[in-house]
Write a structure and sequence with these properties.
heterotrimer, A alpha+beta (about 210), B mainly beta (about 90), C alpha+beta (about 1000), A: alpha+beta, Gyrase A, domain 2, Alpha-Beta Plaits, 2 domains, six-stranded mixed beta sheet, 5 helices, about 25% helix, about 30% strand, globular, C: about 1000 residues, FAD/NAD(P)-binding domain, 7 domains, seven-stranded mixed beta sheet, 27 helices, 50 strands, elongated
């Protein structure tokens, strides 16, 4: 590795590096994977501001989701509703700066804020038959697929941190329950320790 | 542990919220008030046994303030709405 | 190993005779069977003396058969797994279980406290109040005796090795109680499709059907319960939780449950929790919690061998145990006759059936006809025996329990008592439900009027099995219907069980003078104590409870509360409902703190926030402190240096060469919008609308009451875009405060505030060499004083990473804050360190940072403690005239402009003296003298720069006190120092160094 080139580092770097060398645990009912460097953009604007919505929608190629829990997705971006004036736009690693510039230029005359927050949260993916049980030990929301189906995302306390939970597969139709969690960077290691604790009865394995 | 109906997010556990205080209107021009009136606004609060109108902040959710009408005895919440809407004077 | 002498030859559907289980009790090796509880296993071995009582150290045995047990509470387990105060009637037996008695000294059979009668003299009702109200010093004498004499079990001293789990759940219907009523309700609601959680505290479903022979649909109650369980298990919408108690009912349909997954095992299965604490939000609930049999008080009714009648029946039916050889049965209802036949059939000699009722019921007449020895209109007046019963005194009594004839003694080793039942109204009461008093039952039942949830079965006073089943089905159907589910009512089963008949209440039988009749066994409260409370004019039942401690034990008076208040009512000549009940509080039965904590200790419970360079700090000697949840290095341990020597080196590096500190923990808010500048003018005391783009300004914020709230530097990134920094402490509350102002107070302002603390890693480099270091790190950025002056900013690559550079200073030297995306934080930190080698760079922590800011006289929340105005801090000039801001109106209130307010000053210690932490400032150098405190210190440090100990502090009229020679005293620490009052700006007061 070239020491002169600055590299990003995940708050759980050492943990997942060591997992790469370990054999996967086939008996585990929950598997955790770290996706540390996704691009993330905070998009602010008033939901009732039609001009803002139209321009942002054009740039992103998707209409902004307008209700609690809703998410819209394309190949390029995933837009998560965080509040009536706040969206989290998730994109691939390294693509946030260009997205910020594009949005800022298009929205220059609007009342809005576009902020690169790629370093503010890290993403963990939680998958397995017991994924919901593990979350239910530290989350007061009803995670039943009838209420929290695939494609639904909410910000709420999970264990010892405030997380965004995004359900990718809810276990219906023979899918494996799968959730993305977005965790504040500074709390990532503490959250990991909580997750290990909560996952103990179910078997928790780390996937590199 | 209450279940507080955020006007944007729906009912959520009390732990997601921060209590603000009684829903009072800040005087538009504090300097127009006498010392007595201003300190009444600063320090004096009703402490009702029963209906209370108050403000909560959805700290772990949508980051919005809203108004809640809550019975301080039974904790029954009869209404929750964004600030400025149907505000009691 | 002893034989199970009291076990019957056959019978006992709850045990498996093919699986013997050995255990120890007070180090004696005993044997029971799989399925036993510790209580049933002890009884099987003829062990009845199991403990000593709380106050009087009287010998005690087993009273009941379930969670209501007040007497038989034991230590279970050893070492870290020792669990005190465990009810022997609930604890299931496992191989090699270790049980021991509590509260006896030196041994169970010979207890010194009981032997010398010391305890008896010590504890009449109200003992504590009377003894210690006059002379608290007496406590010192009594304490060591009381500590040994009174009390319950001993907690383990080692950490709990087991796992505990929390679980949140949601359901349509929570059913508390898996007896006939709860099962019927679950079958009905489950069949209709409702999402049901059925909770039963025992290992098996069935409730009372398991404790006496009963018939449902032509099968035994036990078989019917098993069939019902199989039906429920087949419903995916129904979850059955056994070994689980509903602990509490809270507002907005929240129920807490405690599930015991490992308590019946020597240790939990691998990786599995011992207990699981549930928080359930249920749309509706049915309380099918049953009723608890109540005793009748008579003299020495606490002797081992006095038991509840239903428990004696249950030990026979479920465990195949005869709890005595010869019994006297004493009751006010017909259940005693069925019991007598069952016990006699199993081989017990029933010496007499003592029926307190003055009439001969139908069941009594049948018993007489069958040559059973029935004494109607009689009562047991006293139990004979010390460590166990060997006789019962029996006499004719009237309806109030007063003697009307001659007492005779009947030989027996068991007295089984039934005084009727108290419905278990606890959960209904916790849900703010009111009580109704049923005169016919002499019992409180849930008042349906205004009830939040449905109570059904014995808890409503329906003691008949068929009625329980019917009520359960009806409640389950109604709940399903209320959920909008199509409910097809299942067929009601036919049931036969024994009947209770008319049961005129009897609380106590008149006792001989000097004898003790216990009401509350666990807390040793007697009928006399209730009388004493009445004589001393305690009117409220809540006062009675606290004065006598009635119902305040771990059993919460499940067998005693109603009797206690009935006696109080009788003394006052009032009906029972007029006296009222005490408040029922969670939990219904005790549970462990560990279940509640759920293993959420340390950082699992309370997360630690780490900066991106945390691992470097930890690997390089960083000694961490908690700062508003963040782990921050205080200093870096260095071999050969004391902490103070290392801190001195860090301070001197900043003053003489350059230092670097991780300041990522400062709060950072992105503020954007057309009205952003106007908004900042309204929240800061000074003006930001006049700030040039690319420049920053230090600002102070007030609370609405005029006290300093927070401070920090805000940079203007664009006309409508600012980057605000807050103190580490207030980064969360500041966001909330600003959002309040924008959303509630000034909704017309168009501003977005977005927290970005997590996004940025920030390193501050400061010292005379800081500019040269930055020039090396950022070759493409013009870092000259002209291009990047104090309060200026630049953007560019630093150590190859895109960065925002703010030039501002907390230390008083040339300093730069370098902000990068936190993912690159460690890369920046390492880049600074490698470039710093050429500039004598040293890493410093919060201690050195604190010393540097004290030398400069900068305040923190130690000084601005919530009582302090800008003027108190010498910052009156920062409150800009000609504009308003939050809190400004308060600055002209009389108290805030009055002379004599405390003002910020510095203190410099005499050569070689050290200013104590938290010192008071006084005129006399005397730690013992009573003298006026002229002020106090708020922060102190050894200043390596000045070679003296210095402090900041607040002093009355402080700005006029410069030059005064006074003393900093800490009577608490016993430390003092001679100090001189000086300006708080100890170092470079003109500020030339930081602008250079």
């Amino acid at each position: 590795m070239d020491e002169t080139i600055a590299r990003p580092r995940s708050p759980l770097a050492e943990l997942f590096l060591s997992a790469q060398s370990a054999a996967p645990d086939d008996t585990a009912q929950v598997h955790v994977q770290s996706v540390p460097f996704v691009g993330q953009v905070a998009l602010r604007g008033k939901a009732e501001d039609g001009a803002f919505r139209d321009i942002a929608g054009q740039v992103l190629g998707l209409d902004l989701p307008l209700s609690s829990g809703s998410v819209v997705e394309s190949e390029a971006v995933r837009i998560i509703w965080l509040g009536p004036d706040h969206w989290l736009v998730v994109t691939n690693e390294g693509e946030a700066p260009a997205l910020v510039t594009g949005l800022q230029e298009a929205l220059a005359s609007q009342f809005t804020a576009v902020i690169d927050v790629s370093g503010a949260r890290m993403r963990l993916s939680l998958a397995g038959p017991a994924a919901r049980d593990v979350l239910a030990s530290g989350c007061t929301l009803n995670l039943d697929p009838s209420v929290f189906p695939a494609g639904h995302a909410l910000q709420t306390p999970v264990g010892n941190a405030t997380a965004i939970i995004h359900c990718l597969a809810d276990g219906t139709y023979d899918t494996t329950p799968t959730y993305d969690l977005y965790i504040p960077r500074s709390q990532a290691l503490s959250f990991w320790r909580w997750l290990e604790h909560a996952g103990k009865p179910y078997g928790l394995s780390v996937r590199a | 542990m209450m279940l507080i109906p955020c006007p944007w997010c729906g009912p959520r556990d009390e732990t997601e919220f921060v209590y603000g205080e009684a829903a009072l209107e800040r005087p538009a021009d504090p300097h127009a008030l006498s010392d007595q009136e201003w300190t009444d606004y600063l320090y004096f609060r009703d402490n009702p046994k029963g209906e209370h109108t108050e403000r909560w902040f959805h700290r772990a959710g949508c980051h919005h303030w809203f108004t809640v009408e809550r019975n301080t005895v039974t904790h029954v919440i009869s209404a929750a709405y964004p600030p400025g809407k149907a505000e009691k004077s | 190993m002893s034989r199970q002498v009291w076990r019957t030859e056959a019978g006992g559907h709850g045990i498996d005779r093919k699986q013997p289980v050995s255990f120890s009790f007070n180090q004696f090796r005993l044997e029971g069977y799989a399925g036993d509880t510790v209580a049933s296993a002890l009884l099987a071995n003829g062990v009845r003396l199991v403990g000593r009582s709380f106050k009087y150290h009287r010998p005690r045995g087993i009273l009941g058969i379930g969670s209501e047990e007040p007497n038989a509470i034991l230590h279970i387990g050893e070492g870290a797994r020792r669990e005190p105060n465990t009810r022997a009637t609930v604890q299931e037996l496992y191989q090699d279980l270790v049980a021991s008695s509590q509260n006896h000294w030196p041994s169970l059979k010979f207890d010194l406290g009981a032997a010398v009668g010391l305890a008896g003299a010590l504890f009449p009702a109200g003992f504590y109040y009377k003894t210690f109200i006059t002379s608290p010093k007496r406590w010192l004498w009594y304490e060591k005796h009381i500590r040994r004499m009174a009390g319950l079990g001993e907690p383990p001293t080692e950490a709990d090795p087991d796992h505990y789990e929390h679980r949140n759940a949601h359901c349509d219907l929570l059913i508390a109680g898996g007896g006939p009523t709860g099962l019927a309700a679950a079958l009905a609601a489950g069949a209709a499709g409702a999402k049901v959680i059925l909770v039963e505290e025992n290992p098996a479903l069935g409730g009372q059907m398991l404790l006496a022979p009963q018939q449902v649909d032509g099968m035994s109650g036990q078989d019917w319960a098993e069939q019902a369980r199989a039906q429920l298990d087949a419903m995916p919408n129904v979850q059955v939780l056994t070994r689980t108690s509903v602990a509490g009912v809270y507002e907005h349909d929240l129920f807490t449950l405690v599930e015991r997954l490992g308590d019946h095992l020597a240790e939990p299965e691998a990786h599995q929790p011992r207990q699981r604490f549930w928080r359930v939000r249920a749309s509706d609930a049915i309380f099918a919690t049953g009723a608890i049999e109540r005793p009748i008080a008579f003299a020495n009714n606490d002797r081992p061998g006095v038991m509840l009648l239903s428990a004696v029946r249950g030990y026979l039916e479920r465990y195949g145990i005869l709890a005595g050889k010869t019994a006297v049965l004493f009751a006010n209802n017909d259940s005693v006759y069925a019991a007598a036949r069952e016990l006699a059939a199993a081989g017990m000699r029933v010496e007499a059936i003592v029926d307190s009722r003055p009439f001969v019921s139908e069941a009594a007449a049948l018993a007489k006809a069958d040559k059973l020895h029935v004494l109607t209109g009689h009562g047991v007046t006293a139990a004979r025996g010390m460590r166990e019963v060997h006789g019962a005194d029996v006499a004719p009594i009237d309806a109030n329990g007063r003697l009307k004839g001659v007492t005779k003694t009947l030989p027996c080793d068991l007295i089984a008592v039934s005084g009727g039942w108290n419905p278990a109204v606890h959960l209904h009461a916790q849900s703010r439900g009111r009580m109704a008093f049923r005169d016919d039952l002499a019992a409180f039942v849930p008042d349906t009027d205004g009830a939040a949830y449905t109570s059904a079965g014995a808890v409503t006073g329906a003691y008949d099995l068929a009625e329980c089943l019917q009520q359960g089905f009806a409640a389950g159907n109604a709940a399903a219907k209320a959920l909008g589910l199509d409910s097809t009512a299942p067929t009601l089963p036919t049931a036969t069980g024994d009947t209770v008949g008319e049961a005129p209440v009897l609380w106590a039988v008149q006792a001989p003078k000097g004898a003790r009749c216990f009401v509350d066994f666990q807390n040793d409260v007697t009928t006399k104590d209730v009388g004493l409370a009445h004589r001393e004019n305690y009117v409220s039942v809540e006062h009675l409870k606290r004065y006598t401690t009635l119902g305040m034990g771990t059993d919460q008076g499940k067998t005693s509360n109603v009797a206690g208040l009935a006696m109080m009512a009788a003394k006052r000549g009032q009906p029972i409902p007029a006296v009222g009940t005490t408040t029922f509080r969670p939990p219904y039965t005790p549970f462990t703190f560990n279940a509640m904590v759920g293993g959420h200790t340390g950082e699992i419970g309370n997360s630690v926030r780490r900066t991106a360079a945390h691992d470097w700090h930890a690997a390089n000697g960083g000694v961490f402190t908690d700062a508003a949840g963040w782990a921050r290095p205080m200093y870096y341990e260095t071999e050969g240096l004391t902490p103070q020597q290392r801190i001195d080196e860090e301070v001197l590096a900043v003053r003489k060469s350059v230092g670097v500190v991780d300041v990522s923990t400062l709060g950072k808010l992105d503020i954007q919008g057309p009205d952003a500048a106007e908004f900042l003018d309204r929240v800061y005391t000074n003006r930001f609308s006049t700030l040039k783009v690319g420049r920053g300004r230090y600002g102070v914020m007030l609370r609405e009451d005029g006290r300093v709230y927070d401070d920090g530097v805000t940079m203007r990134l664009a006309d409508d875009h600012f980057h605000m920094t807050t103190t580490t402490n207030h980064s969360g509350s500041m966001f909330q405060h600003l959002e309040y102002l924008l959303q509630v107070v000034w909704p017309d302002l168009r501003v977005f505030v977005t927290p970005v603390t997590e996004q940025w890693f920030t390193a501050a480099i400061s010292g005379p060499n800081a500019r040269a270091l930055l020039a090396d790190l950022a070759p493409a950025v013009d870092v000259s004083n002209e291009a990047l002056p104090m309060m200026g900013m630049a953007e560019g690559l630093v150590a190859g990473i895109p960065a925002r550079i703010f030039r501002l200073s907390f230390s008083g030297e040339i300093a730069y804050e370098i902000n990068v995306d936190a993912d690159y934080g460690l890369a920046l930190w390492n880049g600074i360190l490698s470039a710093g080698a050429a500039h004598d760079l040293k890493v410093y922590g919060t201690e050195a940072m604190g010393t540097l800011r004290i030398e400069k006289g900068h305040f923190t929340h130690a000084e601005a403690d919530g009582r302090i105005t800008p003027d108190d801090l010498g910052l009156g000039g920062m409150v800009t005239k000609g504009k308003d801001c939050i809190g400004k109106r308060s600055l002209s209130l009389p108290d805030l402009v009055a002379p004599g307010r405390k003002q910020l000053v510095g203190f410099i210690a005499a050569e070689g003296e050290r200013i104590p932490v938290g010192a008071q400032i006084a005129a006399l150098d005397d730690l013992d003298a009573v003298q006026e405190a002229l002020g106090h210190t708020t922060s102190q440090a050894y200043s390596a720069t000045l070679g003296r100990h210095i402090a900041l502090g607040l002093m009355k009229d402080g700005r006029n006190m410069h030059g005064r020679k006074l003393y900093a005293l800490s009577p608490v620490l016993g430390e003092r120092a001679a100090v001189e009052v000086v300006s708080p700006h100890f170092y470079d007061p003109e500020g030339g160094r930081q602008r250079g």
